[in-house]
Model the fold of this input.
Amino acid sequence: MRCLKVAKIEMKKIAQKALDDLEFGVVLEQAALRCATALGKAQMMASIPSSDIGEVKKALLRTNEYASSFSEEKPIPNHGFEDVSEEVSLLDVENSKIEVEGFRKLLLLVDTANTLMVFLKKNKDLYPTLFEATYEQVPIKEIPKEINRVVDKFGEVKDRASDNLHIIRKQMNAVRSKISQSFGAALSTYQGSGFLDDIRETVMGSRRVLAVKAMYRRKVKGVIHGSSKTGSIVYIEPQTTLAYTQELQNLIYDEKEEIDLILRALTNYMRPFVDDVNQFASLLILIDMHAAKAYYAKEMDGVMPMLRDTQEIDLKKAYHPLLYLSNKRKKNTTYPQDVHLHAENRIVVISGPNAGGKSITLKTVGLLQLMLQSGFLLPVDESSNMSVFERILTDIGDNQSIENELSTYSYRLKNMQRFLKKCDEKTLFLIDEFGTGSDPELGGALAEIFLEVFYERNAFGAITTHYSNLKLLANELPHMTNANMQFDGRSLQPTFHLVTGEAGSSFTFEVAEKNGIPYSLINKAKKKIERGKVRFDASIAKLQKERASMSKTSKAMQEASVKSKRENEKLETLNAKVKLKLARYQELFDQEKRMIVLGNSVNDAAERFFITNKKRSLISELLQIVETENAKRKRKSNAVHKKEQQEKRAIKKEVVAKVAVVRKEKKKQKETKPKENFRPKVTFQIGDKVRMFDGKAVGTIDTLEKKKAIVNYGIFTTQVNVEALELVERKQK
Done:
């Protein structure tokens, strides 16, 4: 509706010839097959590329958001609905009536739109541009509520749709019951009399009738409704049911009248919502189109390229969409291309042999540009950059016009006239086999002049040619460049790879030789043309071969460089880890050394106290030791100290773990060796001065009991196993 008007405006900007030349219609047909609604398909087929960068960006974002929903936990809900154009048109007609089936379709439309709007509002962070597409609409709950009050899920008007309808249907059920009873009684009576045929009864014109044998027709009271083909059976409605049947027919008429009133009232209720219904339909059509584009992109691994405000085409690993999908079905290989057009390189002249992929490259650029400006995701690398052009002009294929009695060249000249009128800095032009159709030298000269005009007008474009003068022109002008489709000089097979920066040879004679043309004829042909031109073409061919060889060498060197770089990075990482570990072990060693010194200082203070028994002196020494340590700590900030402590704890934990492993191994070794006791047995006496084997403090034995001794160290006593003691001095007698 609204979208169709926009499409008609855009038609003026993109020439229909460009759409036809680039097979944009085929893309639309393939995308339309993925639409869920008939209106969505029609809208898709009417799509025209836009030249408004804002609209293009919005369309791309919406398609990209829908494509992203395939991998989200909250996928976009169903958007399907049926065409309600007829119902909407009836709402514009006074005193009109929408049938029950129409209300079922309207209910589906409104319910679907309501669900979608609620979902998009709830998930607008995931789908912001799709949420904007709701045009600030809000769900309308009144419509489903009112329709559901009148129509049931089977598409029938409910008994409770009105009080009068409820009464009528109640009466109808009662009459039907009476008809059934009276007909059953008649059936039983006449069956017992033997008047009925074996089939007994049937239905004619929605009425139950008795199947009476023709010979007994006068004995059965009722109305005859017909007979069998042979005339042996007469179908009679019993007299007893006639009155009830007539009453039922009157009630059926009353029911129809009441339903008509109900539906007219419901139609009148819907009239104020006609604009909302139109907007809901437009919203669902829009979502349907973006969904179809997203599914289409999924098949060809399409992504959204970066959109630039300035004119630029920077395609990386770009595939021709139609060729890619066709080859995918056939399981054939499709070759991607890299094409770069920007302010410093506006025009590219592509040369090379026939069947090398020049035309496909040209069509790839054009079709991808049309798809971009129509909101399609593209089969390119996601780092590709593109912009929007106001005009896309094409001259591709055999343009001979039989209707206008124009030759190929005449038609091309008329096309060039159109190019000259419209070409400017916002134009993308694509010309295949530029200058052909006339004398090579004269046609080439005219083509050169045309190309210079396009260049002076700052237009962007790509052309394919075999003409040497166009290759030379591209080499001379600063913002124009040559490119060629690579060709394997040995196998004489195309590689379908576009190389920018140098012209390509047509490999005319090489291809002719490969296709079985005798060498003698080829040699004669060479003599027919200028020697300089042969040498020029041969030089280009030689340069291409050298370029291919250098490309292989460069690729091998790059791979070796990458491998070497990775190895160096691994070594640097390993070296850094080793240095870090060494630094940590050094810190741990220094810490342990400091703790030993500190422990020795405390132990010396304890021995002096043991000898002198002066507490003040002991406390003074301990305080001095603590103050010295705290003075060292103050030199560092709290953050640094905290960090160091964490690192030390980590290192200590690592060392303790390793020490535990070492101790475990030593313990195992110790268990395997025979135990040797190097300590001489000593008999201790009370009063002997002793100390522990792994200690320095000396104490006196106060008590001995079995293998235990109470040792007095002056300020405290402790119980020690005698095997852990060594004798320092015997008690003097």
Observations:
- Residues 1-12, 400-405 have pLDDT under 50 and may be disordered.
- The first strand starts at residue 196 and ends at 204.
